TrEMBL record:
It comes from Streptomyces sp. 900105755. The lineage of its organism: Bacteria, Bacillati, Actinomycetota, Actinomycetes, Kitasatosporales. CDD domains: Macro_OAADPr_deacetylase. This is O-acetyl-ADP-ribose deacetylase. Its EC number is 3.1.1.106. Keywords: Hydrolase. SUPFAM superfamilies: Macro domain-like. Pfam families: Macro. GO terms for molecular function: O-acetyl-ADP-ribose deacetylase activity. Residues 1-169 form the Macro domain.
Length: 169
């Protein structure tokens, strides 16, 4: 059984096996969580991301997929980068958002990570409504077949924390 915990705070301050990054498909950095992770994690993460772009991910990381790198100076062993969908009112992209959580946990299992910190993927710059983003995040983790022991959702502010808290018993 995977334990789900909630923390209000900065994901780059977490001490876990793997920190999930709400990346963009370029893998070369951005704003929000992505910017914070690269700032605090230092150049080693970007260096490995560039290698991924030069190799298997020449066109970038597709939406809904996940890939792992070193965590650099963060208090974690790995950063798992996943690309959330941009929210759309014209098209239901929920399955892609669920895929981010599923694929990140699959990477975590490949690595042997037992504790994984997630941000609320897509709910920032990508515009996903917080309540729906929280619902998909929690439901997908609850349904996942994974050896990860703790999934820690790290929510930046009280509004996000409350949205996730409403999804838990
Ligand atoms: P996306 O592009 O997938 O929407 P963002 O990084 O813009 O990703 O935002 C995802 C969520 O993470 C938002 O709810 C945002 O408030 C939150 N967030 C931003 N910075 C941090 C941080 N340092 N730690 C945890 N959550 C953060």
């Amino acid at each position: 059984m995977t334990r789900i915990t909630l923390v209000q705070g900065d994901i780059t301050r977490q001490s876990v096996d793997a920190i999930v990054n709400a990346a963009n498909s370029s893998l070369l950095g951005g704003g929000g969580v992505d910017g914070a992770i690269h700032r605090r994690g230092g150049p080693a993460i970007l260096e490995e991301c560039r290698k991924l772009r030069a190799g298997h991910y020449g066109k970038g990381l597709p939406t809904g997929q996940a890939v792992a790198t070193t965590a650099g100076d963060l208090d974690a062993r790995w950063v798992i980068h996943t690309v959330g969908p941009v929210h759309s009112t014209g098209e239901d992209r929920s399955e892609l958002l669920a895929s981010c959580y599923r694929e990140s946990l699959r990477r975590a299992d490949e690595l042997g990570a037992r504790t994984v910190a997630f941000p609320a993927v897509s709910t920032g710059i990508y515009g996903w409504p917080l309540d729906d983003g929280a619902r998909i995040a929690v439901a997908t983790v609850q349904e996942a077949d994974t050896a990860v022991e703790e999934v820690r959702f790290v929510l930046f502010d009280e509004r996000a924390y409350d949205a996730f808290a409403r999804q838990l018993p």
